[in-house]
């Protein structure tokens, strides 16, 4: 089960709610079919994660007409409170990209030539994270180069390492790679070794638990985890406010935490998953909800 669904279900269970998970897929047709199914189910609320809503605007309108609150999780949609809103708010991405750019500066000893491994299939990267990262790099080092490689989403977990090796062969001056989705760093170290490419530091945005050992062995220097756990609780908190006649704006305005892990402060995986970015946060929500 995807991490967003896992943590949303965990938070919802504290209030006795049930959550049905629908696979949104990777293609526009699959995205639309998933939202069609959500509309047919006529639930109390709908949450879609990372999808390009341009292909299912009619479904969003139907949900609005039915007065079913809808949440875009890590999307670039324009919110329309109280029936349609986006979590997290934009402040998260400014902090995230500033931290990623700072990590690249450190890895490149103040003068990095950055290879940015982008995954533009997802709107939140193409329209928000990627341009904000470029801006953050320019703020630290106006003369530093950022060379972008657009990774096909279908290459994740397949031939991404081979594609990156070929990208580096064509750009020999790159000394730091910043990965939009840190899955592209998995399996990269042996691929670089096999290609006799050295001197590359890796910074990972939104890693998986499988990336954590890379900090210990030095194949990655910094990781910026996706605060899935905290956002799952934010989603439920916002809906709890709507269902009780309140305003979800308080939840939407909260900044999802941004942390940076290195080999010196990296935690251990919990049940083969990344731990929360902010340990102990759950109790704050439970207290607010009056749940023990």
How would you characterize this protein structure?
Keywords: Signal. Its main location: other. The protein has a five-stranded parallel β-sheet with strand order 5-4-6-7-8, with helices on both faces. The protein has a three-stranded parallel β-sheet with strand order 1-2-3, sandwiched between helices. The radius of gyration is 20 Å and the shape is globular. The chain has helices at residues 3-13, 28-41, 57-65, 91-107, 123-140, 160-169, 188-194, 212-217, 228-243, 249-253, 282-289; strands at residues 46-49, 70-73, 84-87, 113-118, 145-150, 176-179, 201-205, 222-224. α1 crosses α9 (228-243), α2 runs parallel beside α3 and α4 packs across α5. The protein has eleven helices and eight strands. It is of the alpha/beta class and 292 residues long. It folds into two domains: 3-88 and 227-258, Rossmann fold; 91-224, Response regulator (Rossmann fold).
């Amino acid at each position: 089960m995807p991490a967003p669904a896992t943590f949303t279900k965990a938070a919802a269970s504290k209030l006795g709610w049930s959550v049905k998970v629908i696979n949104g897929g990777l293609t526009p047709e699959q995205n639309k079919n998933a939202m069609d199914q959500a509309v047919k189910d006529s639930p109390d609320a709908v949450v879609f994660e990372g999808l390009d809503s341009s292909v299912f605007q009619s479904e969003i309108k139907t949900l609005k007409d039915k007065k079913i609150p809808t949440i875009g999780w890590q999307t670039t949609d324009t919110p329309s409170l109280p029936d349609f809103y986006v979590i997290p708010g934009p402040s998260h991405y400014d902090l995230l990209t500033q931290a990623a750019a700072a990590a690249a500066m450190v890895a490149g000893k103040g003068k990095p030539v950055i290879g940015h491994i982008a995954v533009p299939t997802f709107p939140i990267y193409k329209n928000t994270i990627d341009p904000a990262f470029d801006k953050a790099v320019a703020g630290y080092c106006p003369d530093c180069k950022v060379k972008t490689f657009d990774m096909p989403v279908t290459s994740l977990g397949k031939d991404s390492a081979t594609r990156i090796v070929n990208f580096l062969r064509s750009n020999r001056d790159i000394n730091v790679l910043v990965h939009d989705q840190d899955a592209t760093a998995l399996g990269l170290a042996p691929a670089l070794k096999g290609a006799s490419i050295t001197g590359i530091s890796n910074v990972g945005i939104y890693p998986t638990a499988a990336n954590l050992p890379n900090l210990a062995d030095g194949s990655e220097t910094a990781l910026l985890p996706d605060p899935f756990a905290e956002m799952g609780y934010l989603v439920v908190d916002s809906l709890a406010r709507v269902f009780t006649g309140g305003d979800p704006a308080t939840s939407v305005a909260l900044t999802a935490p941004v942390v940076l892990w290195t080999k010196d402060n990296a935690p251990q995986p919990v049940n083969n998953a990344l731990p929360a970015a902010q340990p102990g946060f759950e109790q704050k929500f439970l207290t607010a909800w009056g749940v023990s």
